[in-house]
Structures are given as structure tokens and as C-alpha cells.
Amino acid sequence: MESPSILKFTIPLSCFFTLLLSAATLKPVFASKVCNFPAIFNFGDSNSDTGGLSATLVRATPPNGETYFGKPAGRFSDGRLTIDFMAMGVGLPYLSAYLDSLGTNFKHGANFATAGSTIRLPSRIIPAAGGFSPFYLDVQYSQFEQFKERSQIIRRQGGIYAHLMPKKDYFPKALYTFDIGQNDLGEGFFGNMTVEEVSASIPDILDKFSLNVKNIYKLGARSFWIHNTGPIGCLPYILATFPSAQRDSYGCAKPYNDVAQSFNHKLKEAIVQLRIDLASAAITYVDIYSVKYSLYREPHKYGFELPLVACCGYGGKYNYSSSVGCGGTVTVNGSQIFVGSCERPSIRVNWDGIHYTEAANKFVFAQISTGAFSDPPVPLKMACHQV
Ligand SMILES: *[C@@H]1O[C@H](CO)[C@@H](O)[C@H](O)[C@H]1NC(C)=O
Ligand SMILES: *[C@@H]1O[C@H](CO)[C@@H](O)[C@H](O)[C@H]1NC(C)=O
Ligand SMILES: *[C@@H]1O[C@H](CO)[C@@H](O)[C@H](O)[C@H]1NC(C)=O
Q: What pLDDT, on a 0 to 100 scale, did the predictor assign at position 50?
């Protein structure tokens, strides 16, 4: 795990002493530092898509959503995602997807993430075989730019519109969250690039990432919460596709995780530079990799089992097949079998070979919300402050 670098924070002296005093005596001083984010604007891929891809190109079907929503809810999981727990954690409702035309409410934010999104323009787009989302990060940025301007015009129409759109002053006060990059690595791996070639593409991927963060800052964003990428080499879609890749002691595909860690190392460096370039920004780097990896290292300690096996999938050691996914049907010996979910998703880590279960997402949220995996180590509720 990367250790948070405490040394480079510059805390005003008066503030420092207040913190020292209050740590020993009065808790309320901490409470007064809570940010009260009025909104969240999220950018990302399926790890945080609350309905974008499902409303546009690939509908989430049963058994997605069965654990929490009781029906498909635009998420590729049996229930809520980490972003859902984060929204709740700061006292806000679940985020509506910007691309969903039905029943959306953007008063407290909007979600520009779509499953299959990349940072860079992908070479293959859905519905091409192995295609990715057309809503890559540059597009998500343009959508946000348009949203920021048009939401205010629509708000001024009054009536119901005033209740469905954020107030103008929510934009500078909002939390801007990011979880994207996994599919840029995946696109390389599945596009027959060697792990070395994928590794070599990371600086360019991160240049494009930083550019988008800067552009969002220029539109007035100040508080950024940036997830690094998870251990992609522990996911069934990698494990089943690359059976001969070297395994680590927990059964994850080591070369693929090495690339993810290299991405994270360079992302952290890019964020150091962003803090220099964007003087008024509070940017929190969140080590999702370490939290997710602990689920493979010590699943039983956290109440999980079979972390490398998909709960909802079909075939092989990892219960995953690239030819039939969760919610699909497969013909076996002349009879059709529905690819449904396992008996107890609540003790499983992996949902469908690519995505995590609600139980795993809840665990991730519990770990990251305290600030224990962040640099600087501020809790989610306080991530508006530069420390
Ligand atoms: C990767 O290589 C395989 C085998 O040579 C080929 O069938 C497949 O089309 C290639 N995929 C891409 C995206 O180039
Ligand atoms: C399909 O049929 C074969 C041959 O009868 C049998 O060995 C196999 O177990 C069957 N598979 C399933 C999933 O029922
Ligand atoms: C694999 O997926 C099937 C659904 O196709 C599910 O019934 C089964 O329980 C899963 N296996 C494991 C070990 O989770």
C-alpha cells in the first residue's frame, strides 16, 4: 500500500493548534470542518455508473439489482455501488445518470459515468465486438460543461424544474469524484497488446486524465476525490481470458496487477502535479487498489468467500465465460439455462466476472470513507479542505 505523505501538508498554525486541542477534548471542532457538499458530480466507468449505459446502449437486466433495489436499477451489480454509499455517506440521494431521460433528479448532482468508459477515445465502440462506451472522459467533460450551463437556464423556468436542477452555487461547493482507467488497461489487454505495451501507454492515458481534471477545475470545481484503479488481475474476466498468466499467492494474475499498480503510481504523480497547477483545488487520491486487494488476500477475515469466482456467470474455474454473461441464457445439452445469481451474493466479492457485489462495494466504502486510504488522509466528509 502506498503510504499517505503527511509531510507536505501545510496546515495554518492556528488551525493546527485547534486541531491538537480538540483532538484531546472537543469533538465538535471536527464537526465544524465537515464540508456539507450540496452535490456530487461523478465521472467514470461501470464501477460508478448508476444508469448511463443502461439507459442508452446496454440495458442492465435481471438479476442485476436483485439484492438492494429488487429490480434492475441501471447498475451492473446485485445492488448499490461504492458511489451510492458515498452519496448516502455525505447525506445526499443516489446520483441520477445524466444520460437517463426518465425520472431523473439532478438537484444534488449528476453522474456522467458509463459502463465501458475509458479515458482515451477507444478504438472499438459498442456494439462492435469487444467495443467500449462512446462516452469516454472527454465526452463526459463536455456533457458536464453543457449540464452546468443549461441546468441554470432550465432552473429559471421555475416550477418543477427549479426542484430538479442544482443551484448555481452548488457547483463550486460540490464534490467531483472520479473512478476511471480500468477500461483503458482492459482495452489494451483485450486488443492483443502485451502487458509491456499497455504499461507504456499509461503516461498518455494519464495526460488525458489530467487535462480533463484541469478543464473541470476551470469550470469552477474545487474539491476532487480521485479513485485509483483496482486489481484488474483478480477479476474473472482477466483470469479466464489469460489462464497462463503468472498467478500471485492469492490466485490473481500478477502481470495484470503490476500494470494496474504502475498506473496508480503514475496517477499519484500526476495528482502531485495537479495540486501544483490547480492552486485552489483540494485533491484527494484514494487507494481503492489496496482496499479491493485485501478482499483477495484475506476474504474470510472480512466475511467473504470465493473472491475469484463470479457469483453470476457461467463455466470454468471462475464461473465466467466471455460468450454468455450474467442475465443471459446458455443452451446446454439442448436445454436453455438462465445465468442467474449464486446462493449468497452477500458473502461474495465478484458479481458478474467484472463488477463487484453490493457487499464488496459496501466494504470498500467503509474502508475509504474514513480517510485511512487517502492522500491526504482526510475523511470523505472533509474532502473539501486543503490540508
Ligand atoms: C486478437 O488476436 C486474436 C487471435 O489472433 C484475434 O482473433 C482477435 O481478433 C484479436 N483481437 C483484436 C482486438 O485485435
Ligand atoms: C450434457 O450431456 C453430457 C453427455 O450426456 C453429460 O456428460 C453432461 O454432464 C451434460 N451437461 C450438463 C450440464 O448437464
Ligand atoms: C455460477 O453462476 C451460476 C449462474 O449461472 C450460479 O447459479 C452459481 O451459483 C455460480 N457459482 C458459484 C460458485 O458462485
A: 98
Q: What pLDDT does residue 134 have?
A: 98
H helix intervals, the chain = 13-24, 28-31, 52-56, 82-89, 137-155, 160-164, 170-173, 182-190, 195-200, 202-218, 236-241, 254-277, 288-297, 358-368
CA of 307 to the centre of ligand 1 (A): 29
245 in a structural domain: yes
Residue span of the structural domain in which 373 resides: 31-304+356-382
Best CA proximity match to 133, nearest among 250, 54, 249: 54
Segments of the chain with pLDDT less than 50 = 1-32
Decide if 54 is catalytic: no
Ligand 2 atom with the shortest distance to the CA of 333: 1
Structural domain count, the chain: 1
CATH number, domain at 58? 3.40.50.1110
Stated pTM of the model: 0.91
Whether residue 320 is contained in a domain is answered as: no
Q: Which ligand is nearest to the CA of 333?
A: 2
